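User: Fold this; tokens only.

Assistant: Input:
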Amino acid sequence: MPYKMINVEDYQKLAKSTLPKVIYDYLEGGADDEKGLHHNRQVFDQWRFKPQRLVDISERDISCQLFNRLWSAPFAIAPTGLNGSFWPKGDALLAKSAAKANIPFMLSTASNMSIEEVARSSDGEKWFQLYVVHQELAKQMVQRALDSGYTTLIVTLDVGVNGYRERDLRNQFGLPLKFSASLVLDGMLHPAWSLRFLANSKPQLANFVSSKTDSLDIQVAIMKRQMDASFNQESLKRIREIWPHQLLVKGIISAEDAQIAIQCGVDGVILSNHGGRQLDCSVSPMETLQEVSRCIQQPILIDSGFRRGSDIVKALCLGADMVCLGRPTLYGLASKGEVGVDEVIQLMKQDVDRTLAQIGCPSVKRLGMSYLQYNSDILKQVTEQKK
């Protein structure tokens, strides 16, 4: 463990040493050969900063206006599943940290705490991310989120089928956790995690367990845990009809799909390739961000591969309104629980602020393409490496 944790990578290393391999592989792994996972990081090198000088940067503002609310930073905690496998009550701890930092928290359908439990856990604004496993079940979850005071609904569109995550397949990862000889041995090598795990109830998909239904179709869908591959524009319009607050769609990449989603009545989009966990060779959302920003006027959020404040600033320059952080805050959670999440959020805030100072920009609201230059050399380097 480093003497002082100074960046997200330090928390990643600590998380790796803290978690059993099967759990860390679930957190870190991607689809197939994980080329998309690595591409999500490499793509940031396609842009270089063009600093501006003779600008008063003695005071800097990283606050972000979104949906008629002022947030303290231009990033949010993205929806992530099975957070209870990293730290007990992980979903609630993430929500509490977000509330303290005045940034949005997005609860996943695949959480280990229910919609209602997380709503009671903190007084911060909470958003709910919906996986559509069965459309009637989805309707029930939307109503539960509405009744529990969630202010924004996020419908994820890029999981028509589950990604082929080979690490999880080899580890036979799933819920409930299978106590194989290798997992028991690995747990013995990670005693702090094992003690926390044994002292608490086993993680489960709480939103499905707490769903009450007599429908055999819904019960079968819950048991299979497969997404509704028939979900289409009409399905999205039906959700729009029953959700009275802000509605976002997550998991689109193209400008065409963004425009279609807006026509279906959504209030904004989250550009995402699911952190490289679904389609292995997908383009990064950073590569289509500019095009999307030219095609729609509604808010654009983005995730996949963000690790530094400079990454966030680049996305804001290209047209994003906010960035969603997935793995970085989970590294903090797995390392130190709520304290680790707090520390990662603070690191990212400091990093965004420092980047603004370095490029000569006093406020995130003034960021734009004038601060960036496209770096074509990186494409040549990647092409040569492949040869």
